[in-house]
Batch of 3 targets.
Target 1
Amino acid sequence: MMKMVMRRMVFLVFVIFGVSLVTFILSHIIPGDPASMMAGQHASKQAVEHIRQQLGLDQPIWIQYVEYMKGLLSGDLGTSIRTQNPVIDDLANYFPATLELAIAAFIIAILIGIPLGIVSAVKKNQFWDHASRIFSISGVSIPVFFSGLIAILIFYGYLNWFPANGRIDMNINPPTRITSFYIIDSLLSGDMIALTSSLQHIVLPALVLSYAQLAIITRQVRASMLEVLSQEYVRTARANGIHGYNLLIRYALRNALVPTVTVIGTSFGALLGGAVVTETIFDWPGMGKYVVDSIAYLDFPAIMGFTLFISIGYVLINLMVDVTYFILNPQMKE
Amino acid sequence: MINPQIVTEAKEKNTKTHPIWFKLKHNKMTTIGFLVLFLIVCLAILAPILTPYDPAKINVAEKFQGPSLQHLFGTDEVGRDILTRILFGARLSLGVGLLVIFVAACIGIFIGAVSGYFGGIIDQIIMRVMDMLLAFPTLILAMALTASLGPSLHNAMMAIAIVEIPIYVRLARSETLVLREKLFVKSAVVFGIKPIPIILKHIIPNAVSPVIIQATLDVGNAILMIATLGFLGLGAQPPTPEWGSMISTGWKYLLDYWWYPTFPGIFLFLTSGALNLIGDGVRDILDPKSNR
């Protein structure tokens, strides 16, 4: 297993290099001129020229690339044109909100998706199976912004059960900053008002974001449970009088989870894409909203910093998924 | 005694030998998918005949009217008929989805065939570039690409095509690796035919079917991505009647005039749902494991 991890780490270095090359190329084929964008509409030619020199845009392209890579290696993603902060600081500021939302969505997807898949497989071709299949096919077909729209219309506009913007009520102070996760922080500091408010705020965006993942997990668990349940060892276990919970969870599910883990990993990219849209819809102050706001300003350091950050995260998650796969599947140990 | 389970299993196996079309027809969900898609395609083609309104004509006097007999889905902020715009949007979404996947598949299959046929350093370079593209989450790479090229429908289409290419390259490459060793290809080489004509005439026609299947599975996805980019303001710009950008504009009026963003959303959902149902049917047939 160590060998596999090592090989993947080498690959990771290569991928990070490649990804940074792609983002560099992208930020240099911009049709607009970032220097004049930054200087503003009424700036003089000299001012624009000055900024261009400051940004190093008057240098030949390969020197710019060397500078860019030097910056990257020391954790410098450039300065955001919109907020005037270093991009890395901005991302660090917005990252916890995104992570909190993604984890919440992920937990919902697993907690509902796995049982639903099992029920669907056990009650194959019965009512619950059909219901859960329709539920999951809608999950992969519905765009995040449409499920978000329905959620807001019903649960905010009509029923008014949950708020639909931000992480916490405007009139409530965020909890003392410890982990930057509002829910955990308010628990740790015993701030019940902040806890209720932040829990209420996360419900709708987390549900909306989890739907696609949920659908994919349900589908995969159903398929692999059906496969596992028809295998000899399950039949033997049944013949030996093992049934119900024990048979399904301890004997069948463990093996059915192996392909599911891979599917969860590959669908994580979609979750990240979905997070961008979800945050925009629910005014969630995370990286996704940050990047969408930056796009309107043609703030390329911010956009490319975000893209690079997310891609590296994505590659790391896939590595974790592979390691989990090895742990779950002893056959792979050779 | 014959075990009845063996008999039913044998029967099930027997049905698997029927032609693809027979199986597609006998899958209820797939049939529903085909029907819905057929309906949407008809609506899109017949759009100018079906509606008396102009999708672009502004009529401020009739703005924000709720659903009624004159305007089944109501009107938008400048009094355009929403149903009309949805129908014209269907033309755009379906057309763009097909076009993007067609372009991506054509480029992908060629690159993949070249990569697999020549092997060696060319193969290495091409596949590493593809790995690089696959390292990005698709929507986020498409966003970054469109942002760099400048927000417009054309650039969004180009970005999605680029994002989709690696899938086809991989598929075509693995097919080519098998075909390259076949006798008819080897004899073509012996006859002195140059590599590119071999790729075009002998490899690609034989590698095309898995690519076509993958392409049908991807059209729905491409339509969703175009709409998502439109929603984020990166794709089609208003006043183009594109579903994503209609929903984006309508979003501002969501709580007062719910019908404005809701109906385009329903159509988008139906279209991608229908394509997914069909895709599921196709996948069930090709992968007997999932067909239980």
Target 2
Amino acid sequence: MIEVRIHGRGGQGNVVAAYLLATAAINEGWHAQAFPAFGAERRGAPVVAFVRLNHTPIKRRSQVLAPDYLIIQDEALMNVPSITDGLKSGGNILLNAANSRDQYPTENNVDNSNLITLPATHLAQQYLGRPVPNTALLSAFLKLTDLLPHSSLIQSLEERFTGAVLEKNIALIEAAAETIPANLWKQNANA
Amino acid sequence: MKTNKRAVTADMLVHLRKNQPRFEGIESGHRACLGCGEALAARLVTEAAGPEVMIANATGCLEIFTTPWPESAWRLPWMHSLFENTGAIAAGMEAALKAQGKPTKVLAFGGDGATFDIGFQALSGMLERGHNVLYVCFDNEAYMNTGIQRSSSTPHAAMTTTSPPGSERMGKRHLKKNILTIVAAHQIPYAATTSVAYASDLRKKVRRAMEIEGPTFLQIHSPCPLGWGHDSAHSIKVARLAVQTGLFPVIELERSELIGSMPIRHPRPVTDYLKLQQRFRHLFNKDDARAVEELAHIQALADHNIKHYCLDGEGMDALDSDGADTVRRGGMRWA
Amino acid sequence: MLKALEGSQAIAQTVALCRPQVVAAYPITPQTHIVENIAKLVADGKMDCELVSVESEFSAASLVLGAASAGSRTYTASASQGILLMSEVLYNIAGLRVPMVLTCANRAISAPLSIWNDQQDSMAVRDAGWIQLYCADNQEAVDTTIQAYRIAEATELPVMVCMDGFTLTHTLEPIDIPEQDMVDSYLPPFNFKRALDPANPTSVGTLVSPDFYSEARHSHHHALLDAADEIIAADNDWKQLSGRSAGGLLSVDGPDDARIGILTLGSVFGTLSEARDEYTELPPTKLIKLRSYRPFPVDALRHACAGLTELIVLERAISPGYGGIVSAEVQMALSGKPDMPRIHSFAVGLGGRDIPLDIYRKLHAAIKVPEPRAFSIIDVEPEKLPVEDHGIESANTDSNQQRSIS
């Protein structure tokens, strides 16, 4: 079973990101589960969502305590001491940040070698005209892990959005994928 | 002298009247007190509304005295759920009938406690959502079913078991809530007051309210001999005096605008009304300065009503008999 | 076909398949997504009903009561404070024997204010006279919702479908939404014999004196007991059609020779089930999933507990000043059974506290005691308690006895 924890802020589409990823997986024949760490969050507050992907039915309802991957939608959240809690050894972090991995300070005991950054907010501003980084990060996540085909994310977007929002998001995820090396985390994904 | 016409005798009139196919939604033989204003008002409302309705009835005297299981005085589909949800029950009935493609006018019955106080929220919701319901409030100005406790409809200075007069109090300290204008402020198409003392006015208003699509509201002043402390034989007289003094204005509002009022040609002093009722007896102690002051206060309230609602009229007061004999089964539609 | 759906979305689509004519609701977390999805289905012309957005839960319950009494199939949903605000109406609906379906998106009760999941809300209206069915996952909630209409209309009793708030309502997972034809063939149109009708006027909700009240309560009680047969039949028939059972009155999962059992209501079942696969070193354990809490299936429970020496009752609510609510009933149901297991009563996951897999190990450890403890909240964290409350958790049985002696 692959477990993903997504950190973000209210308004960044954290739950939507989790739902999109699980939906893409379910459409590809996986068993998946996505749910928020429910809170009474207002815009801007730190929020968490969880995704589980598996080849057999998932029955557990507990929160993801030991994720294989972290997707962090806001760079500033890296300063939260508990942000990487439970990350499996060899686990990876996808971070929305303008700086590259090498420039990213190694505060908070984060192993730089496990971290990939994507300037997702910048890309989202460029393609959507809004600072919503979630779909760009998902696209990068799939490219890095090769867990699901790129087309599955498009299908999952099509189930949720229509019209200009859909078209702009598809353009965004194409662009995001291009900036990221393929299959870098693949071995981990298959482990 | 020859004539082709048969003389119309008084006997014939009585015969005609008795054989008129009048519909009564509530049967005699129920367990209301002698002189109950509410029982009479409910009968008049159901006569005028006709048989093609269903009723949501709040907890209260009307519910209790009409339906001691396994008996019922109702000839209409009737439902009592709770004290404070009558607006919502009626709204649900209406929504169901609408969904089923049936005629939808529903009657909701509540006393002043169920309407002014505990059921006010459900009533407001029903009005705001525009359900096709005629809500009738039988206003006897206190919680009579539980033994005469004050409600927000109880008039100023009236004695109830929870607003007793004493060395520190002169009955209810607060004013009677002006429910009609609050209800009308929902911008409903029709809201009116009437009184059991004016049966044809009451029937006309019911028929009018029934014909209007959307929420309508009728507040019927209904004396309670037990709670008000008056002779059971004088219910109509007392109710009429409430109107004639200006203490209970009989008015009509459309979309919150005043469109009609029953004029008072010769306003009576409020003491004519108050002195018939034990609930105001503490106001007639001439040695008590507070009593004198309260009487003046109540007279001022009546004077204010007369001025505010333009109740002044000229000539003779109308006799309330016009239209009384035209009520037939189904009310207006067959009249 | 399995589709990726959020629990609430699945429930809304399922409710639409059941063709209610009147829906009334008032928003409360975590029920909101259900009603929002219904509103969207109505707005898009995919659901034909009178949707009434009322001014309170009290009016939501009242409105569907009025509508059902006038002969329409109805639906409402709520949670937590909303269920409590409805409680007077819930008793009234059941006492009037008016069939309807309500989804309770289970949530804790204030104070302290918590928007998160436990089952204190539905437990608080346990005695309202409704059938209560608890769902372990979203598929069960979908199937139970459809079955609930059939059960309600066959028994003339209202049915509360309890699904854990957030844990189910806000979880996206693969869910099968049945075809309309299948639901139509299973659920005939609502025909309420006692519907209010001007052509045949009846009086409903009359005053009942002591001469008849006991008889009315007796009939209501027995109607609920008798509903057990319909709950089983409805599930069996649904399984014939869909291939899925939603769990009958209760279901047992685990080896026949297990000596330890854990009884749960709702979604914690799945977590325990995976934990059992994970902690293979622990003794064989039966998981008993209690679906029908009202009517309470005494016979089925006694049968399910055959061979057990230890029974853990794990619940998501408490009766302060006593302890376990379900466990007390289980104790009574099993009492007098010659080989009655020892009963261990625990609450867990109150106010949304996460229930990790590790709870399974903790439960196994906690029952290794000479005498079962009366009750405890197994996941309470003593270091967070005020000093004066320290030690109470570890010694509640003893201290209770001491108090009663002194």
Target 3
Amino acid sequence: MNATIALILLQDGLTSGLIYGLLALSILLVFLVTRVLWVPAGDFLVLGALTLAVLRQGEVPGTVWILAGLAAVTAIVETWRAWRAGDWRGWPRLIALVVVPSAAAVLATLWLAPQNAPVPVAILLVLALVTPIGFLTYRLVFRPMVDQPTLTLMFVAVAVHYVLTGLGLTAFGSESFRSPPFLPGRLDVGFTRLSYQLLIVLAVSAALMAALGLFFGRTLWGKALRATAMQRFGARLVGIRTESMGALAFTIAALIGAVSGVLIGPMTALYYDSGFLVSLKGFVGTVMAGMASFPLSVLGALLVGLVETGASFYASPFKEAIVFGLLVPFLLWRSAVQIRTRGKGHE
Amino acid sequence: MMKSVAAALVAATAFSAPALAQDIKVGLSGTFSGPNAANGIPYRNAAEVFPKTIAGTGVQWIVVDDATDPTTAVKNARRFVDEDKVDIILGSTSTVTASAMTDVAVEAKTAQIALSPIQIAPAKRPWVFNLPQPVPIMVSAIVEDLKKRKLKSIAFIGYADGWGDLNWNALTAEARKAGIEVTTGERYNRTDTSVTAQVLKVIASSPDAVLVGASGSAAALPQITLKDQGFTGPIYHTHGTVVKAFIDAAGKAGEGALMPTGPVVAAAELPDSNPIKPVSLDFISKYEAKWGKGSASPVAGYAWDAMLLVEAAAKEALKTAKPGTPEFRAALRDALQSGREVAGTNAVYRFTAEDHYGVDERARVLVVVKDGAFRLAK
Amino acid sequence: MSARRLFLAGLVLALALAPLVLPPQFVTALTYIGLNGLVCIGLVLLTGVAGMTSFGQAAFCGVAAYATALLTVGQGWSPLASLPVSVAATALVALALGALTVRLAGHYLVLGTLAWGMAVFFLFGNLPGLGGFNGITGLPAIAIGGVAFTDPRLVHVLVWAAVALAMAMASNLLDSRVGRAMRSLPAEIMAESLGVPTARLRVAVFCIAAILAAVAGWLQAHYVRVVNPSPFGVNASVDYLFMVVIGGTGQLGGALLGSAVFEAIRTALRDVLPHLFGRSGSYEMAAFGILVVLLLNTTGGGMMPYLSRILPKPAPVRAPGSAGPLPRRERAQPGQALLEVRGAVKRFGGLVAVNEVSFEIRTGEILGLIGPNGAGKSTLFDLLTGVQPATAGEIRLEGRRIDGASPRAIAGAGVARTFQHVLLRPEMSVLENAALGAHGRGEAGILRSALRLDRAEEARILFEAQRQLDRVGLGEFAAQAAGHLALGQQRILEIARALASDPKLLLLDEPAAGLRHHEKARLSALLRELRDEGVTILLVEHDMDFVMNLVDRLVVVDFGTKIAEGTPASVRGDPRVIEAYLGGAEA
């Protein structure tokens, strides 16, 4: 391996690592706020990427029908719940939240898609179509199960992953999609050539992470979200509506997924079922960070990306085994720490 | 919607109605869903244009899905022999699922024509036939082409699955025979988002050519990445890649990609003396009448060939036995391996008791992607 | 024979005879339901009983399947001879993996097993000698004493025999000393304080689940006669989990019900949907996911609870009328120092929660430890029970140091405790909860329990539990679920459970908290009776009235420091107590 190859590998690993890192953020956010292991994170990435690809072919993506159907079902179910509880307070606001953004996204897409919308418009449509799906999933499925054990929530998350993958198959078929690059070509920086796509991924994920940081650090909603993540019960005591926080976390997670999809869409071909492995690698990143810290999770995910690229180069048949094997030394270390802190009393 | 429900009811009653004693029953199990769905669905489509009678006798084509799951494939095979009492089994359409079914076929003394290349153990040869060209025959076309171009080495990048294994094993064996060096063997998954590292490793081993051991549109990722990283030698693919989806996915980077395939792909370009030409043209016209222009593929052609083989054998077997009996099943098997040539769309088949692969060099041509279509490589 | 057992026997007989009457494809389906059910029994033990879960069960099936394939095809072993080796190999892997992850929080086990499932799939496909992704073919059929199991109907009988055996052993296990300990695992602090070695037991349950998966893998390998990686990937493990979730993780029956329902749903979706929508392969996955979500949304506990309502009830566990005694501890003479606390200090960072506290408890007395809220009582209690280590100082039980020992070691030394927030297994019966207390006095292990060789000891444990229930006045409720008791009764049940361990010292953590007046009176009377019978009691309490009329001596702490010690009368008059406690409370 020479320096040229090393630099290309580094780029490749960083790109995958950043994508895993973005998903790791969404996974951790959802986990900390709602205790749900966000298995479908990768499905949102796939939805984003495939929707963009179809939009750029000038066609109406199947995402429109997924969103429309989901919004309709949610509206009906929420109405039924309100009727059964005999409590109509909050119902108009909720229905507006459910219906308006979804309807707007669907109608805008139906109108703009056949006109071959310019790239920025297409991207906005993708975000507008995919983000509400996260919110609706929470309202429809997870909110009523808030008090269920973590294990049940995890099973539901896996089932939701099945549903999204299955819907992806009906909406997009079993073939792969790839969007045309936003900026083809590479930038020559002397010692190596950087693909513009990588620079875009770097810039956007840095911007997204900074925005999230600001959101958590500076805004009231962000602080409330952090408080919920740290101490659910305490957050409730100080008057934070943890349910709204759950909805917010799912919405942000879906947005992150959609953005990652837009980023990765032009770099590789994706299938309706590509999301699962990407999710899992995001998970490996968050677990390596102890499922606690956002910046460390991103670092963990970057490490996963780099190790994966390295393993692909040196021993490609074993690369998955190597990537998932990364967890073994980590778990050993956690176990050792656990035993040591337990054992301290004996000194 | 109502129409399809009605059709479904009709179909359901057709399946459940007691079979008339004289009907020939053929069980077709395929990968119509699951990871290998893209490769399985053409078989189901082809089955819809199969003839309803053979030599005046009715035929029931019992078509079931195994979801690319070997366990389900075995269940289907059991259902065929135990419940439907079929006269012959076709399937399955992936290597793993087809292999899984062989034990049932052998135990039930019912012939099975595998619709995906499998390895037939000698003990199973009496009942198991292999229809698609075995991978080594296809790969040998690539190795011959290398020799013709006076190239000395080839690298491999393929799926980390059974298909990748088959092509890798064939390549190493055929290349050794021809004195060609295999520089490296890299693997990736269909859903991987990047193969840059593997491609760099391939390029670093400085081969004269590359074989991509993948299938369908997922074969486009190495093709694009190889071009992207500046590889200029010939890039070969497997016959599983001869589908429109590959051309769509690879776009401009796909131009010049070479692959061995059944002659049906370039039927119109074949010389009139080739017995495959009329059969292929007949198949294409019937298939495309139902499924639209450009829908015919070598994969659907395999289904057609299986039908042709069953038809030819059944004509013989009907002379000596009644369908639904062990005698008929044995007669069908004997007719299949009688050594008579049957021209299909992908090959001229000639099975004997010793050879259950039954195809020769006539079963393959080398095609190249040119202007977004598969053309005979000259 | 109870109605339940009759029903089960009938079910087993019907299944055994099924191949004679059912069309073959049903036999195939039933065989797979049995194979999957075997794996699911392990998952119920793991998930429903012990509160852990695993995404690696299919990988365990795979280890055994590949092991037997290598041994039979490669080495020419008979399948029967390869069974113990294949199962042992799987158990070893599970042991290593379990040791690595079970000490960690639940999510690490989930992700650890997920990673293991992913990695092992690719290892099967790529390790040399395993036949790549096309696997190994030509496995022989199982042969027992010259009978080859090639006929699917024979395999069916074999599989269901294995299922029946596994069910019997698993239900024996659950109805035993070890089984109760396993069921206590989700409440780790409680389990440890009852002397249950939780980490070791978790690993053991993990291994049991893996062994059941291994047997299923071995059976399947010789039934299908090919081995390849695809049935052993993570997707298959997820399927197994869905089966137990659908069936219900709370009862063993859920394993089989889930396996059957899963098979039915899958088959129905595959056969019905294509007719509805005109093409297949697109809607099944989404429809399946929606069904699971609906099911989990409406019944968190799966379908088994519904089925249980129709089925004959299992006979409740009852104590025998008489049984031999359990081992008892030696006791010191009344009046001698039993527990000595010397200069105990606990610091959290800069905060001193317990500051140089010293006192002693004498055999046969009731000592009250009181103080206002935030005085450090709970921390002191944690030091005594080993939940937290002391920063400095010594705690001795009969002269032997116990400061820094684990809760389990302290329990083993003869100190039993109750909890401020009641910790019971609400779904277990009152009797079984009490019997948990006697865990440390028995020794029957997993194998003995599964084979029902533990009955003599079990009778003694249940007899002792019933005796303690009678002693505290809960005898008549023995067969009820503990969760159905009123709070006051639950506290008393905790005391009965503690007594069942034959403790030298009983530590009660705010036993009167949340109790109504008459409940307090009853508790007070019970504690006095126990003292008269020679039980030594330390109780931490802030309810002054409750304590004053009950205890022999009092230790008063405030701001982590002991401010007074003596009889209730002398403490009541102590100006510092009045100021710190009463004064502080009223000011």
